[in-house]
């Protein structure tokens, strides 16, 4: 079996157009006449819709904010890199020698991009239903339980990473008020950036209130 | 003809499930048992894919960065609000009295959200191809020419709006260098936020270089 056949077997899908598969596996570092960036653009939107619909149908009673939260956990670079391991995607990539020596085959960003590109290629050839079938099988194999609790994140850390990377500043949290009896206190915390209040939220502990405030900002950024 | 039939005629689509259409038209201000937020979540992803694929197929030779740029112009709140006018969507919304008095029927955000929700509802009932058919017709009626030049934006203004709203600060631009003969000078400008350099870019004028630098940051935020 040639290289492509191995991947096709792992995907349980035979590509009609092998050139399209090759394009999906080709990193821009190769400087070839084509690379997987356009297919990645398409595949990204395909997977956003598939995961969005999957969650919409699975959770009839959760609101849009929580649907977004769940999707963000499932369609991240990290998540796609994990899913890619099921089909050994890294080993099939076309990379430059430099990128190869730089451990590119194992970089989550490269593998995740190629994963999206491969799904984009299947979409172009065979349509949405075919990608759904292939992707959901991989997704459900990876995530034994898909729900808010299992996919919950440390929102403060996530927010700090974003503001640090983009603007070189760290958010600051401040206690606004606390109320209620000692055994059932409610804390209200606000999150600031550059002296500007971004959001405030309440919780049963300072930490819980901080996490909720950070989440509000993250959702606003997402929108 | 009842209310729904008028909208259905404008859309050239008859809903199988009128309750789903009603949900898509119901703003959360009504405090009804349902509102259009979940369908909007779904419709947003549907339209991202439809526009992404449309651009992917129409522009065989432009890179992923420019595909993203074009899509951002077409799928914005402003764009969807404009498209909604073709089907008089504002007049079909269910709003609270307060929102009604607050001119909610004409708010771009409300109308755009409902537009996404209506497309999400058609997707659930009739699938992707049906939404494509309906949406692309509306899109092509609105945009006589879809290309980078016609859809080009003022990126500096767009960036400033974002940083001001989210972080309370305005970007600062600084000349890094200029080179070349007087009639053919190249300017390199950098954009800073909080003394942190976010990006730099070159152009035939300071303004052009600033626009390019702002665009680099906008694309990074988008990603």
TrEMBL record, chains A, B:
GO terms for biological process: mRNA processing; regulation of gene expression; rRNA processing; tRNA processing. It comes from the Bacteria. It holds the Pfam family dsrm. It catalyses: Endonucleolytic cleavage to 5'-phosphomonoester. It is an enzyme of class 3 (hydrolase). InterPro entries: dsRBD_dom, RNase_III, RNase_III_dom, RNase_III_sf. Keywords: Cytoplasm, Endonuclease, Hydrolase, Magnesium, Metal-binding, mRNA processing, Nuclease, RNA-binding, rRNA processing, rRNA-binding, tRNA processing. It is found in: Cytoplasm. Its EC number is 3.1.26.3. GO terms for cellular component: cytoplasm. Transmembrane segments: none annotated. Mg(2+) binds at residues 40, 113, 116. One of its GO terms (molecular function) is metal ion binding. Residues 4-127 form the RNase III domain. Residues 154-223 form the DRBM domain. The active site is at residues 44, 116. Its cofactor is Mg(2+). The keyword rRNA processing applies. SUPFAM superfamilies: dsRNA-binding domain-like, RNase III domain-like. Signal peptide: none annotated. Digests double-stranded RNA. Involved in the processing of primary rRNA transcript to yield the immediate precursors to the large and small rRNAs (23S and 16S). Processes some mRNAs, and tRNAs when they are encoded in the rRNA operon. Processes pre-crRNA and tracrRNA of type II CRISPR loci if present in the organism. Homodimer. PANTHER family: RIBONUCLEASE 3, RIBONUCLEASE III. Belongs to the ribonuclease III family. This is Ribonuclease 3. It comes from Campylobacter iguaniorum. The lineage of its organism: Bacteria, Pseudomonadati, Campylobacterota, Epsilonproteobacteria, Campylobacterales.
């Amino acid at each position: 079996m040639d290289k492509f056949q191995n991947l096709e077997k792992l995907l349980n899908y035979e590509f009609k157009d092998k050139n399209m598969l090759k394009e999906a596996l080709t990193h821009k570092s190769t400087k070839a006449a084509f690379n997987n960036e356009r297919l990645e653009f398409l595949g990204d939107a395909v997977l956003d819709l598939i995961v969005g619909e999957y969650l919409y149908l699975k959770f009839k009673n959760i609101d849009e904010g929580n649907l977004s939260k769940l999707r963000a956990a499932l369609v991240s670079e990290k998540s796609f890199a994990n899913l890619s391991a099921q089909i050994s995607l890294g080993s099939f990539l076309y990379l430059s020698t430099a990128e190869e020596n730089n451990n590119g085959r194992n970089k989550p960003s490269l593998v995740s991009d190629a994963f999206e590109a491969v799904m984009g290629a299947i979409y172009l050839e065979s349509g949405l239903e075919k990608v759904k079938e292939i992707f959901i099988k991989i997704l459900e194999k990876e995530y034994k339980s898909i729900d808010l609790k299992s996919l919950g994140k440390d929102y403060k850390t996530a927010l700090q990473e974003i503001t640090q990377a983009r603007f070189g500043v760290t958010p600051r949290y401040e206690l606004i008020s606390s109320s209620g009896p000692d055994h059932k206190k409610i804390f209200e915390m606000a999150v600031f950036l550059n002296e500007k209040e971004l959001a405030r939220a309440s919780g049963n502990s300072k930490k819980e209130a901080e996490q909720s405030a950070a989440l509000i900002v993250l959702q606003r950024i997402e929108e």
